[in-house]
Description:
Helices cover 47% and strands 5% of the residues. It is mostly helical and 473 residues long. It folds into three domains: 3-182, no CATH class; 221-377, hpI Integrase, Chain A; 389-468. Helix 1 packs antiparallel against helix 2 (65-83), helix 2 crosses helix 5 (132-152) and helix 8 packs antiparallel against helix 11.
Amino acid sequence: MAFLHWPTSAHIPLMNNMREGYPFISDVTGNLTSPVNWYIYDRCRGKIDPENLAKPRTKLKELSHNTVKKVGYSICNALTWGETEEAHPNLGVLLWHQIKEWHVTEIYQDALTRGYWTQQFWQDGHEAPLHPQETIYFRINEVLLCYRWMALEGLVDRFEQHPTSRDIILATHDANLSYSSRAEEPDTDRPKKQNFRRTRTIPGNGVLPPMDGLIDWLERVSAESHRPALLHTLEIGLRISETEENTLLPGVMHARKLSHIRRSVSHRKWTSQTRLLKYNLSDDAMIGVLPDRRVSFSDADVISMRVIGKGAKVRLVHMARKTAQAAWHYADSTRIHILNRNNISPLDAPAQLFLNRDGHPLTAAAMIRGISRANENSTDAVKITAHVLRHLFACFYLKNAIEGQAAREGLTMDQLSYEQIEKIAEAPARTLQLHLGHTYFEDTAGYIKLVIEWWLTPKYFTMWNNYLDGQNA
Length: 473
């Protein structure tokens, strides 16, 4: 079994290429797997370029702590699998330098997919398949990167050597037979394990700023790119993390840098091939491309586009003409000014619509920093966060839908009861669920409660204050 360690200042003098904060791996005997640790060290400090292993980066950028942990645990998991003979009985124990590419892509990946190589299976014999995109893809990709890098450096031999197809089938078959001998018979009385679901913040528990507070706050946001980017995000209801990959300009040559895209907003069919971006609602390669000029300046009341969001889920979102046209007004003015200021030609410009002052794509992290600066300059008791903008979109959407439906029925808002508002709001909330990309309606339904309280509470407390002042006596 391989073990992952986190070095302290006491370890570092004893080992080369070790740094506090970067993990290292030892095998079951306690010996260091030095070449693997050399990879982890260079990978974590950003020297290794996943897109070009043969050309180390000269400008280093450390990986985030979460990514460092995922890199370390992914490789450690694979080395533990190699040392576990029961996982591949006809191959015996595979030490780190004996693992081949086909071991990883055929037998190890199959065990992950079937749910055999999981903690739960080895505890109770019940398969627990892992998430193919969020877990399996990262583990397999990281292990392959590690071994291909070691092969290029001459640290392992014949990593890409494959046996015959028959040998691969027999090895996989024997591995599955070994797993099945540990498997428990299905128990119909055993309660089905519920998939883990993160406890999310309920929208109804939040506090939203008044309209004048929102306008004042927006005035404090940097006007060049942050403000138009946040307004675009607000008017469509995007998550901040979705903005960068879903504001691509049509008509631009673009190659997606898959290693730099957050996996939660990366499509499995995307490649790093350079493509001419087009506004196309049917082509998966064109997800995230903004409506072109023809559509944006047409007579359409509502304009749609496909975006990719959390969990790599693709959804259709809609925007008003004004929003689509505002994006092109920014592209034709502020964006061109930024490119000219930095001597960047249109051919070398990034495909992302919103740029920072240096002409690079405006990232989610930069937008969040802009939000924080605006909050620091604001005296309002209610601070606006990235997700509050999404809450505001949802509440404005529902409020206008309720007002419109009430008007069609010849009612004023003061004539609607709490129950009537809830009933009217359910249908638009169902469409809002699809727009926001919520899996569960209960997550969207929280906005109904929030908009009612945000809307009605001030009115009733005004009446109460009037009573206290003797005006309703």
